[in-house]
Design brief:
Mean pLDDT: 86
CATH superfamily of the largest domain: P-loop containing nucleotide triphosphate hydrolases
Radius of gyration: 26 Å
Largest sheet: 6 strands, mixed
CATH class of the largest domain: Alpha Beta
Structural class: alpha/beta
Strand content: 5-15%
Number of helices: 9
Number of domains: 2
Number of strands: 8
Shape: elongated
Distance between the termini: 52 Å
């Protein structure tokens, strides 16, 4: 389901299992059923909400030099650890500082840089906006633009996800729903679905309407529409349910999923129009 260069945002309410999913992928948690198989060439870097293995008795530059003395950029040039530290907002005057003297945010930033120096080809980020300041997040966003592997990010931050994710895995009602687009697009669709549900409720409440003497009658065309509208609504609802099932069954076929997502959006729009017509026609005296 995850492919090279994928930028996936993982969203959902607190406690639904987003961080658990990352822990399973990272191998830091055993599944209760089945197994997680990691390929031999996969190198995962996991930026979790807990810092692990940060020896605070070491100095900033020495901590990183244990991993590498220099780094090759994607363009083939070489960058020293000192230069890389500066890119990650550690001025030269701080390179000899003991890690224990750093602020909590600086420790997180240093830990992130160490993970990136280990040359991962899969990057997992768990709520990075909780621990990193805006300047560091900007540096991270720039780094991710040149990162060749997939990135999976758990976050509630709309702005950050719009910058780093082009696909969404949404935890909804005990299921994981794939969505192709930015987080804002996903939120817009959720708002649309809520509006549609409200229209359904409103239509149901107004099915029985008082007949007023001055109410005009339907035209012939409206009578024809009224006769078939409930069937039209049922057909659209059935197709929407079928599309959602197809999306679950084709989770790894991104071409198919994109086509299904487009049809789903069209059917939802058509269904909302039918609900609005139903509400309008139900007020007439046939």
């Amino acid at each position: 389901m995850v492919q090279a260069k994928d930028r996936i945002g993982i969203v959902g309410d607190n406690g639904v299992g987003k961080s658990t999913l990352l822990n399973l992928i990272a191998g830091s948690l055993e599944p209760t059923a089945g197994q997680v198989v990691i390929g031999e060439t996969v190198r995962i870097a996991y930026f979790s909400q807990q810092i692990e293995g940060l020896d605070e008795s070491k100095r900033v530059i020495n901590y990183l030099q244990e991993v590498a003395e220099e780094v090759k950029t994607s363009g083939g040039s070489t960058t020293s650890i000192a230069e890389l530290l500066e890119q990650f907002l550690f001025p030269r005057s701080t390179h000899g500082t003991l890690i224990e003297k750093l602020s909590g945010g600086e420790k997180k930033r240093l830990y992130l840089l160490k993970l990136l120096l280990e040359k991962p080809n899969v990057l997992l980020l768990d709520e990075p906006t909780n621990d990193l300041d805006i300047a560091t997040l900007t540096v991270l966003e720039n780094f991710l633009q040149g990162f060749a592997g997939p990135v999976l990010t758990v976050s509630h931050d709309r702005y950050f996800l719009d910058k780093v994710a082009t696909k969404i895995l949404a935890f909804e009602n005990g299921k994981i729903r794939p969505f192709f687009g930015h987080y804002t697009d996903y939120l817009d669709e959720k708002a649309f679905e809520t509006e549609m549900a409200n229209q359904v409720q409103k239509a149901e409440k107004e099915k029985v309407v008082k007949i007023r003497e001055d109410k005009k009658r339907m035209t012939y065309q409206e009578k024809q529409e009224w006769a078939s509208i409930e069937g039209d609504i049922e057909a659209l609802e059935n197709r929407i349910a079928a599309i959602e099932e197809e999306m679950q069954a084709n989770g790894s076929d991104f071409g198919k999923l994109a086509t299904l997502q487009k049809e789903l959006d069209e059917k939802n729009e058509a269904l909302l129009e039918k609900y609005e017509r139903y509400e309008y026609l139900s007020e007439f005296d046939s």
